[in-house]
Amino acid sequence: MVKSAFQDLYRELPSLDALLQSPGLGDLVATYGRIAVADAGRAVLARLRAEIAAGSLDASAIELALPHLPQAVDTELRRALGLSLRPVINATGVILHTNLGRAPLAADTLAHVRDISTSYSNLEFDLSTGQRGKRDVHVDRLFRRLFSTEEVKSETTTIVVNNNAAAVLLALNTLAEGGEVIVSRGELVEIGGSFRIPDVMQKSQATLREVGTTNRTRIADYERAINASTRLLLRVHRSNFAISGFTEQPTLQELNALAREKNIPLMEDLGSGALFDLREIGVSGESGVRESLRLGVDVVTYSGDKLLGGPQAGLITGHPTLVQRMRTNSLFRALRADKMTYAVLENTLLAYIKQDYNSLPALRMMHLTRDEISARAGALVAGLHNPALRAELKLAESVIGGGSAPSAVLPTTVIALTSSIHSADKLSTRLRNSAIPIIARVEEAQVLLDLRTVFPEQDQQVSTTLNSLT
Ligand SMILES: *Cc1c(COP(=O)(O)O)cnc(C)c1O
Question: Whole-number mean pLDDT of the chain?
């Protein structure tokens, strides 16, 4: 076709203004606003012009398409302005899955978030004096209760920042800017997504002083490294890897004794930071926040959305004078958490105080037994009638995740799926692309569904999706 022929075809298309006058578009303008509807109209017309230029639309095809343009604009608007964040079903068995949003929140905490965030609140206002207040008081009182136990003798204060990376940055900058921080070489970890201790150290304007070797560090190594510039002894939880074999690491008791002797603060970046005893779920060798405080650590940093099972936040608990210095650091203002985080945190901590662990979804999932999961998996498999799918139950392990404890796994039963039509990868892609995406694990040419991380009320949805897969 020659150029002038294209020109004739282009003329068959309405102008943007004419398109926007079409019946039905008025409703779209009321819903989406004039600018968004015009953008969608422009996109629809541009697509048609591209098809004409590619020679794939002739005059009769255009004539057929014209009455459907308002519908095309509607579809374009839904595509462009649909919500991008969507709920998914986590069938991976990784409870604190960073890519899937870590800890799911308890539904009943949301009423409090709604009340606080859709209204004015006493976030930084002291209702008894009518004066300016501090946002930390709302949760510090609860943390104090949780930590003022027989074992933890000293008083503690807790402040909240955006996440644990921010907590480490703030703590290091406050306690060690311009000075040295002693860390074992075996603890210079990278936590997924570019959090590296040496980099954070540099940003905090403190100098890293590495001691020991990757597998062995002794208390004498720390002692020898101490000099007039030493500001802090730092222990970092290894989170996502374990060193086994010929290893040695001083105990917190030894580090604490050295810190007291030399009068240098001791900080621990716990990462996950549990507020409950992990031995309850059969995980040993992991100490929680209370244990670190009991052993004399001056400052502990941990995440709100890992083992704590709450909102994204970084928590700094420790000696009141040290924490007070962090709170007056101007970085604190840049890193602070918002009112919604405080509202969720308040409810999460109340659940711990009431020992109502079941109300926190991540904790509830950790406490599920293999028998409970097997029973649900068995019922789900019994309800499958898709002739293309073969499903069997297999013993496997769920992972706590979130860098909690590298070897912390929980016994589970998974549904292992094979398809007579698709490869395992293809099958998992189809599950991921279903109306409510189901995220599964692929292992040894099978798709594994671990119901530990699926809410029981979602089992039916999983079953329906599997039965309708083609
Ligand atoms: C997870 C983790 C961090 C980072 O915490 P975020 O809350 O993800 O910012 C830092 N240190 C350790 C040891 C961790 O495990």
Answer: 93
